Sequence to fold (747 residues):
Amino acid sequence: MKSITSMMIIFLLLTGCMNANEIERMYYVHGVGLDYVDEKYEVHIQVMNFHTMAKEMQSTFEEAETIVAKGVGPTPVMAIHDIYQSTPQRIYWGHLSALVFTEAALNTGMTELLDDFLRFNEIRYTPWIFSTKSNIDDLLTVFPFLDASPVLGTFGNPEDGYSQSSFVAPKRKHRFILELNEPGKSANIPNLTVEDRWHSDKERHPVINVSGVSSLFGEEYRGTLEGKDMYGLRWLQEDTERTPVNISKNDEAVAVIMMKKPDHKITPKIENGEVSFTIEVDVSGGILEMHQQESLDFIEKEVTKTIENEIRTTYEQGLENNADIYHLSNELFKKDPEAWHELTEEEELSLTKETLKDINVQAEVIHSGKNRHIPILTETE
Amino acid sequence: MGEDKISRLYLLFIFYTTIGLKNHLIIIPPLSETAGRDAWITVIFSIALHILWLFLIYYIYKKMNGIPIYQWIMNRVGKVTAMLICLSIGIVLLLLATHSITELGKWTSITYLPFTPDLLIMVIFAILCLLTTLTNLRTIAILNGVLLPVIVLLGFFVMFANMPNKDASLLLPILEKGYMPVFSGIVYSSAGLGEMVMILFIQHRLKNQVKYWQLLLFTLFVSILIIGPLTAGYMEFGVEELKRLRFPTYEQWALISMGRFIEHVDFLSIFQWLAGSFIRISFLIYLITQVIPISNRKWKNMFVIGLYSIVLSITQLPKSDMEYLAFVNQIFLPGTLIYFISLTVTLVVISFIPESQKEVKRHETA
Fold:
């Protein structure tokens, strides 16, 4: 009896969490847009409607899926507290999925913005980092159509789209900060734009488009590459899953080869106090589309050439913005830190077009899809 | 109480939790701060030094031959010296326990329970540890046998689940700044491993003898608990960010995301930390009762309750977390290392002094 009483007393201590907030009485921030206008920080928060999280449950009434608020202040925290002034319920940051920086925010005050989002205990190291050239308010009001849940959109789940067609790898906060910190490393993040491409019979649906790659070095923003200018990057990204190469002959399309999981290696070489780099890429893929009958040799040769060109173009386009898009400087640092310290000024290696000396691509075509290696509507022997 | 003995395997398991918790959570931040990217090499050097230190510990252990430390010293150099040495051991053990419970309280209130006062958490936790300390060594060993496997399994889980977040090339370049930073961190990694001295305080409760190679193997396993999360932290956050983190091991838990809907599993780290601290604090205070033996049951209970009250009052001394952290890293950790080294040397010296005949007879009847 005595032991039972003492056990009961112990249970009284299990009062749970003090001042815990009930989950249905909070707003959940899903995405944050960060801007810098007229020497003031602007924080835009995208708050999710709670029952859009579980889309399988049919909601019976129509309501906005997300809602966006804006706060302005002399520091990021003050801007967030500016939003709090007009918030009916407590705001919870633990489920933050994405941070989007405008170009103005990247140019000034990015470190201040980051510091706040690092120190605050509710925010993790997992949100995805993006940049944008579009209006931040427009970007945050976009949500996936056909009743898809916003948590599975570009902000919440950029990996799905990327694995189907890999151009710019999405980047989580811990990796972004790591790359800003590592000597000689630059951080490449996807650049988003709002585009008007999709529509239904009733209305047009704005969508978020991954349209380029923004490069940052330390605290500095080093420009954004878009379209063909950034095609080379995919060959040197660890996470590239599946990415198409288009080859042509006399300006006519010959075939599209779907390349998978490229491997790469960057080797620095020092001669007469000057450094040069060799990039090796090893990749294989299958034919996805075929317009003209060409030999496998020709296709492989063309693929190799195309990939080499893409890598060089992206490198040189990056140089125009002073960006070291392939982390060449960091590769030297890892292999020969002494030489790196000698050759760099304020942690920066001066790069020219000649610094990237050789690009060796080993491209193999290993299958021709579900059809044999002949174009459609051609007679088979 | 004479029956309260456990086998060497169980004792080493308790040590694994006790020392492992410190290595895992407390040693890593100051170690990475001083040694930087090469901190894992520091640990290897530390192990090398520890092979020698362990030899001394093992030598004393053999000499003690199952006699409680207080009696063993008293037989050689007399009551006053024995009292002084054992009192100093007690104070250091008390401070170690205080440090562990403070770290637990701070972690809880900074990361996941910001609105709950940390004193409340620590008081409840201390009551739990108090009840355990008041039982006996076998109870602690059994509790540890239940908790430790889960702690280890969760450790493997966090290691494998974070694989996609790791980039091994971040460990390069090795020895960028030469050997200086490597050696500067050695104080911290040794402060963790040096707690092995504690085996001397409890050796009289062993059923069977520990061998030298067993202690050595144990040290290697405990070192993995530093090297593992340390290198993982570098591969996930980079050197600079890891140095900035207040709780680097915990952040690795917060990083796990398996697909879109399995994430935020860091609540599991609460189990790891609480279970580890529970065994560590209960055992440290239990050790005090072994070093300073009080035979009267009632007085002993009062003594333990008093110890816990002192622990709780010390936790309230530091004004801010930053002040506390500076004290721990600059004074406390190096201090305990110096203390453990000098204690080892003192005990080696004492072991050369022959026993006085009168005392031998007395402990045979004890």
In short: Residues 79-112 of chain B form the longest helix (34 residues). Chain B has one domain: 8-365. The interface with chain A takes residues 110-117, 120, 124, 127, 165, 167, 169-170, 172-173, 176, 236-241, 244, 251, 254-255, 257, 260, 263-264 of chain B (CB under 8 Å). The CA atoms of residues 51 and 216 of chain B lie 7 Å apart.
